[in-house]
């Protein structure tokens, strides 16, 4: 195979809600070392918050036209409809891209996506360089698969009797089972005991020899993540998951909706309301852009359970739809009216 016909490597970045996938990818973009990169962002919800964050980077290694957003909520459920056209769009770019990074939604199972790389029309052009699972260190240390799941409070670090009927646990297990590298995020928030607990939880689900890399703020040398050269699509059948043998799957255990707000006057007050929604109504994740009265800058809000971060990411432009919109994600059965009442204030 000549260099011009060589398949483009793709890295699949998977991980649970709020684990730090976008932070990790942004760091890779900022330290591309001459690589021409493209991103496929698979967002859960009706507006692509993660894609907007990446597009706001202004990084030469990955210009805005190299970022393709999919909004179906589960890439592996709609590979034919969305993923292949996205690949076509990226592979047609000039100059040619050197590497593609696919950020799955927090709810996606990586195995069906990797299996799609076995299709003749895909396999001839791209290959899965490696699967990277990003996991939330402090959450694992506390016995939970994600810091935003109040329903999973039991300490399960050394407990082999995992509840496989829990869909959130199953998503976590499947992501780890398919990983070639595990990124332990927020490791700066862990002491030695917490780090040992987090490693133990990950180890319970690793059937192969896979390295665990502790990180803070997504700071990992891109050479660790890119260029594994594993052709994972050729080995994916050996990676056993909870959903093997299923013809299809759906994430009916989750709800997602958008709450529209008026312009806010005090971002800190909004952050308190977001935290209250997590505490009172078991909201897993809130993210969105907010208009702050009298401010030319756009406020980015991201929350993982009761942990809320907000900052001005860039100025509003004439092309922006200057509305305050928050995507709310949680387990099935969210009390939407109650959540809207809390967030609207």
TrEMBL record:
Cross-referenced InterPro entries: CobW, CobW-likC_sf, CobW-like_C, CobW/HypB/UreG_nucleotide-bd, P-loop_NTPase, Zinc-reg_GTPase_activator
Xref: CDD domains: CobW-like (cd03112)
Coiled coil regions in record: none
Alphabetical UniProt keywords: Chaperone, Hydrolase, Nucleotide-binding
Gene name of the record: cobW
SMART domains: CobW_C
Domain CobW C-terminal: residue ranges: 254-345
Keyword GTP-binding: no
This protein's name: Cobalamin biosynthesis protein CobW
GO biological process: cobalamin biosynthetic process
GO CC terms in record: cytoplasm
A GO term, aspect molecular function: hydrolase activity
Family: Belongs to the SIMIBI class G3E GTPase family. ZNG1 subfamily.
UniProt catalytic activity: GTP + H2O = GDP + phosphate + H(+)
Biological role stated in the UniProt entry: Zinc chaperone that directly transfers zinc cofactor to target proteins, thereby activating them. Zinc is transferred from the CXCC motif in the GTPase domain to the zinc binding site in target proteins in a process requiring GTP hydrolysis.
Pfam families in UniProt: cobW, CobW_C
């Amino acid at each position: 195979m000549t260099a011009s016909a060589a398949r483009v490597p793709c890295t699949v970045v998977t991980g649970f809600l709020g684990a730090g996938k976008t932070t990790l990818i942004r760091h890779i973009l900022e330290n591309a070392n001459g690589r021409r990169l493209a991103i496929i962002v698979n967002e859960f919800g009706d507006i692509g918050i993660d894609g907007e964050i990446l597009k706001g980077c202004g990084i030469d290694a990955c210009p805005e036209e190299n970022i393709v957003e999919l909004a179906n909520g589960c890439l592996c459920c709609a590979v034919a409809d969305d993923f292949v056209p996205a690949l076509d769009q990226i592979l047609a770019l000039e100059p040619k891209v050197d590497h593609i990074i696919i950020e799955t939604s927090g709810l996606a199972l990586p195995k069906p996506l990797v299996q799609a790389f076995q299709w003749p029309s895909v396999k001839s052009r791209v290959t899965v360089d490696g699967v990277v699972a990003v996991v939330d260190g402090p959450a694992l240390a506390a016995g939970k698969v994600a810091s935003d799941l109040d329903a999973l409070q039991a300490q399960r670090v050394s407990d082999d009797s995992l509840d496989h009927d829990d869909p959130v646990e199953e998503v976590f297990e499947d992501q780890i089972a398919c990983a070639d590298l595990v990124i332990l995020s927020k490791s700066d928030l862990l002491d030695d005991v917490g780090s040992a607990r987090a490693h133990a939880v990950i180890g319970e689900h690793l059937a192969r020899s896979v390295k665990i890399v502790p990180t803070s703020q997504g700071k990992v040398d891109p050479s660790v993540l890119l260029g594994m050269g594993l052709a994972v699509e050729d080995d994916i059948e050996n990676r056993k998951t909870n959903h093997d043998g299923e013809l299809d799957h759906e994430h009916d255990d989750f709800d997602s909706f958008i709450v529209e707000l008026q312009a806010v006057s005090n971002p800190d007050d909004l952050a308190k309301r977001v935290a209250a929604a997590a505490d009172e109504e078991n909201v897993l994740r809130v993210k969105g852009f907010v208009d702050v009265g009298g401010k030319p800058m756009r406020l980015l809000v991201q929350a993982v359970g009761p942990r809320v971060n907000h900052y001005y990411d860039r100025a509003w432009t004439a092309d922006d739809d200057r509305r305050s919109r928050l995507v709310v994600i949680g387990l099935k059965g969210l009390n939407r009216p109650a959540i809207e009442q809390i967030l609207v204030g």
